[in-house]
Amino acid sequence: RFLQRFYCIQKVLFPTWSNQNVLMFGTLLGVTLFEQLVIYQVGVIPSKFYEVLAGQDLEAFKTLLLFAGLLIVLNSMLKSLDQFICSVMYVSWRKSLTEWLHTFYFQSRVYYTLNVLREDLDNPDQRISQDTERLCKQMSTMASRLILSPFTLAYYTYQCFRSTGWVGPTSIFGYFVVGTVVNKILMGPIVSTLFDQEKLEGNFRFKHMQIRVNAESVAFYSRAGKVEHMRTDRRLQELLRTQRSLMNKEFWLYIGVNTFDYVGGFLSYMVIAIPIFTGVYSGLNPAELSALISRNAFVCIYLINCFTQLIDLSTTLSDVAGYTHRIGELMENLSADTAFVLDRLSYKSPFSDDLLVKDLTLKISQGTHVLVVGNTGTGKTSLLRVLNRLWESSSGFIHMTTCFGPRGVLFLPQKPYLTDGTLREQVRPVLIYDPCWTCAFLTVTVVLQSNLLKRTGGLDEKVDWNWYDVLSPGEMQRLCFARLFYLQPKYAVLDEATSALTEEAEGQLYRACKQLGMTLMSLGHRSSLEKHHDVLLKLCGGGRWELITLRP
């Protein structure tokens, strides 16, 4: 789940190869690689000093001292540039992610849905403002270390193997594996606790904002200030309890991280000692051996340091995981375009006191096709009447985030609606003007698949008959689908719309709907409809209902 949500966030931060975030990330990679080359040269300088000082060569010492000074200045500049690019990336990432969230948050009254109708998603404002900022900050601090790790690990592993044989890399890799497993175990409880802490932080901040907005109203009540004081302190105590729990869990993680930091320093000398005491370097004099020990110690220590940095990142990664889950959860609710949100909806016929459906909770979102089934009289068509506001609901809420019509939701009722006029006017509503007449012609000829055009004399031939008397039930349903394909709404609600058609024709029409990007809500009895839908809503009668996932 974490990887999936993290990947979705990265797609927002790096949408295209030419995006400025990608270019900055590539620049950071180049700078950090060059910085590592300089660091290696700085790291082997002490071994050269051993050789020069042991040989008492003053001129070589002066040259080496100047070279070391230049390397230090260059390293400082590269490190500063590295930090500067990370800071710029942090600002750019925050801009990209926040603007993306704003785009979906403020469209189609999604902000109202999340803040008023949704109780399962806490503090969307905090997730957009505070959690986004912290996530981008944490990712920018760990970016340079993460992108360098594959290169530095490969290079210093090779150098360590040349110096110590297979014992050195094997020991260090084993050390890292143990450290990773231990820190993974210690990090697990932190992520969920951090999630809870951020939720309580938002609740505490919201309480103070509530008092600020209603300060005058509170002041008019003599004891309201004391009540709000008590309730605000209660929110604070809940937050502090969670923070203490988080600190207790982080304490053990810090012990693990710091222990592995210090063990790494001793491990480098243990690795170097093996070839020395086994006589591999017995032919070297003390000065050469000192230089070799210094150079090999740097290689081993730096390799261990690379692993240690990865282990140290576990604390940062736990924060990133917590913020990723909160922002990812918000993105999942923002990006899903929703037509209807049903919250504990109950409804009945205006002519009866018996509830058809009780406490129905359902979200109809773009891309999720819903099939409603049930015996006659269980309230299938009645549900459409309630959604279309032809009937009032008994209790609960229906929140509609789109509109009725070609750009929103279009209903195909169980009884096809045909009016007088030409064949074209059956497909294209009179009030909708579209100069592209060819579109209507192609729609009719493809969908009807009959000799209807010949029988009527063409699309615009005026007729004096009743269409209900001329067309068969199957032709009327095809004509309704032709109208649907012409209008191409985002959502199509179909009430027994293919009952007079063969299963083959039904499949062709449903596939065409999906190819045109429509999200379908169908009512029907045929089992063949299930393969075209993702969710099954079964109305059992007596107010009971059941929601079944057909395809995850």
From TrEMBL:
Residues 126-294 form the ABC transmembrane type-1 domain. Pfam families: ABC_membrane_2 (PF06472), ABC_tran (PF00005). InterPro entries: ABC1_TM_dom, ABC1_TM_sf, ABC_transporter-like_ATP-bd, ABC_transporter-like_CS, ABC_transporter_sub-D, P-loop_NTPase. The chain crosses the membrane at residues 21-40, 60-78, 251-277. This is ATP-binding cassette, sub-family D (ALD), member 4. GO terms for molecular function: ABC-type transporter activity; ATP binding; ATP hydrolysis activity; long-chain fatty acid transmembrane transporter activity. GO terms for cellular component: peroxisomal membrane. Residues 340-550 form the ABC transporter domain. GO terms for biological process: fatty acid beta-oxidation; long-chain fatty acid import into peroxisome; peroxisome organization; very long-chain fatty acid catabolic process. The keyword Transmembrane helix applies. Belongs to the ABC transporter superfamily. ABCD family. Peroxisomal fatty acyl CoA transporter (TC 3.A.1.203) subfamily. Keywords: Membrane, Transmembrane, Transmembrane helix, Transport.
